[in-house]
Every structure is written in structure tokens, then in C-alpha cells.
Write a structure and sequence with these properties.
With 258 residues, this protein is an alpha+beta fold. It has 2 domains: 126 residues, Jelly Rolls (Sandwich); 108 residues, Orthogonal Bundle (Arc Repressor Mutant, subunit A), CATH 1.10.10.60. Helix content is 38%, strand content 23%. Strands 1, 2, 3, 4, 5, 6, 7, 8, 9 and 10 form a 10-stranded antiparallel β-sheet that branches. A hairpin with a 3-residue loop joins β4 and β5. α1 runs antiparallel to α2 and α3 packs across α4. The two termini are 35 Å apart.
Length: 258
């Protein structure tokens, strides 16, 4: 991986590089940083991507834009076919200044895969310049996926949050989880509200909705998606999903995506 994580613009001026690699279940890319921006995408499988400030679950219908210089780590859930792009620093571009979760429309998906097949885009090649311009426009204009998970900084609250992320289907009472984190529920309530703007209950709800999108994107039935994120009532799951996304779970199943 180190040959891909560039430290500066290459002497021959290559602005975009593609990486194709398959990771096994549970593989982890520990926290790292690089000056090149990265579009974190997987053609199949699910990733957990985290920066010091936030975390996302990433199915093949989504990608995460990580600006250069941003510390981040990636964990694999199941076998992951990563198809990711690295963009060399090109000066200030306000459109790409912050981390974002993007819905990957068909055109963006095919463009990512096409650039990965090329391997690198050459500055001065008219066809490659057009591909780079289209990529930047699609990244800047892409629909931002909802339900980012802001992460607490306190070690006790962070450990509590990581357990919720690891077990979105669990129905363990928060009081029991709090004891494992070494803090009372009241303390965690205070820490979460101060550091994430959400209560632990609301934060857990976002984790479950992210897991719901992951399951639905894999094509599982709505009933199974409900179970995957800790609901034993399908009607309660659908109601929670509609509150979170403003649409029904069916929109996120592959055969019904626009």
C-alpha cells in the first residue's frame, strides 16, 4: 500500500491513481494519513471508515471522500473488493475540502472502475484530462448520504460508541454497555451530548440505520434488514427508517434504486 499513498505530486504530474485490491473479512488499515485525497470505495463488500471526528458504514452504493491530510482508518466487514482513487493535491478546491459520504450513482461507479483499470491518469493527455474533470465534477455535485456518525473524543464514550458500531443488531441495554465502558449512563449522556450533539440512544439509532442501508444495499428482504439492525418488529423498523431517510426501505434495495 505504501507505494500508493503518495507523499507529493509525482515528477511526471500524475493527478489521479487507482487501486484495486481485495481484503479478507476483519482486515484493518490502521489510522494513517497522506497528502493525496482519497475516494474510498468498494465494488463489493462493506467497509467501516473512521476519522477522528466521524464514522461511516460504507456499502457498494456509497463512497467516502477523505481530503488529503485527514487521519483515517478502514475496517473490512466481509470480503471487500476495494476500488479506490487517490487525487494528487491540486490547490484549494472548496468543493472537496471536507469529508463526505456520497451516494455512488451508476455514472460515478463506472468512472471509478474505468480509472482503476487505467491505473493512473496522465497530465496533458486530453482524454485523461476529461476523465479527471468529470470525476471532480461528480464528486463535487454528488448527493451526500445522510446519517454521518459524529464520534466522541472521551475514551469511555469512544469505547462505548465502538461497541455499538461493532454490534448494530445487539439489543443489550445501554446500562449494561455503560458498565463495560467504565462510566454511568448519566456520564455517557453528558459526554455524548457535549461531544456529538446526540444522546446515546439517538446515536445508537443512527448506527442501526446505517446498518439497515448496508443490509438493504446487499439485497436482503426488509424483514432481514430489520433483524440485522436490532428490530424485532418490521413495522417499527419501517417507521424508524422513514423518519431517518424520508423514504421507505425499498428505495435502498438494488433492484429498486433509481
Amino acid at each position: 500500500m505504501s507505494s500508493i499513498r503518495q507523499n507529493a505530486r509525482d515528477p511526471d504530474g500524475l493527478p489521479v491513481r487507482g487501486l484495486a485490491v481485495t481484503y479478507r473479512d476483519g482486515h484493518r488499515l490502521d489510522r494513517h494519513t497522506h497528502p493525496w485525497g482519497q475516494l474510498v470505495y468498494a465494488a463489493s463488500g462493506v467497509m467501516s471508515v473512521a476519522t477522528p471526528q466521524a464514522a461511516w458504514l460504507v456499502p457498494p452504493t456509497r463512497a467516502i471522500w477523505v481530503p488529503g491530510g485527514t487521519p483515517h482508518e478502514i475496517r473490512m466487514r466481509g470480503t471487500v473488493a476495494m476500488r479506490t482513487l487517490y487525487l494528487a493535491p491540486t490547490g484549494a478546491d472548496e468543493r472537496l475540502a471536507a469529508c463526505r459520504a456520497l451516494e455512488v450513482a451508476p455514472l460515478l461507479r463506472e468512472l471509478i472502475l474505468h480509472i482503476v483499470r487505467i491505473g493512473m491518469l496522465r497530465v496533458g493527455d486530453p482524454a485523461h484530462d476529461r476523465l479527471e474533470g468529470l470525476l471532480l465534477d461528480l464528486l463535487a455535485a454528488g448527493e451526500t448520504a445522510p446519517l454521518v456518525l459524529p464520534l466522541p473524543t472521551d475514551p469511555r464514550a469512544r469505547g462505548f460508541a465502538e461497541r455499538l458500531l461493532a454490534e448494530p443488531e445487539a439489543t443489550t441495554p445501554l446500562a449494561d454497555l455503560a458498565r463495560g465502558a467504565g462510566a454511568s449512563v448519566r456520564t455517557l449522556q453528558r459526554l455524548f451530548l457535549a461531544q456529538t450533539g446526540l444522546s446515546p440512544e439517538a446515536w445508537r439509532g443512527r448506527v442501526r440505520m446505517q446498518q439497515a442501508v448496508v443490509s438493504l444495499s446487499a439485497g436482503v428482504p426488509v424483514t432481514q434488514a430489520a433483524l440485522d439492525c436490532g428490530y424485532d418488529s418490521v413495522s417499527a423498523f419501517i417507521a424508524a427508517f422513514k423518519r431517518a431517510f424520508g423514504t421507505t426501505p425499498g428505495r435502498y434495495r438494488p433492484q429498486q434504486r433509481p
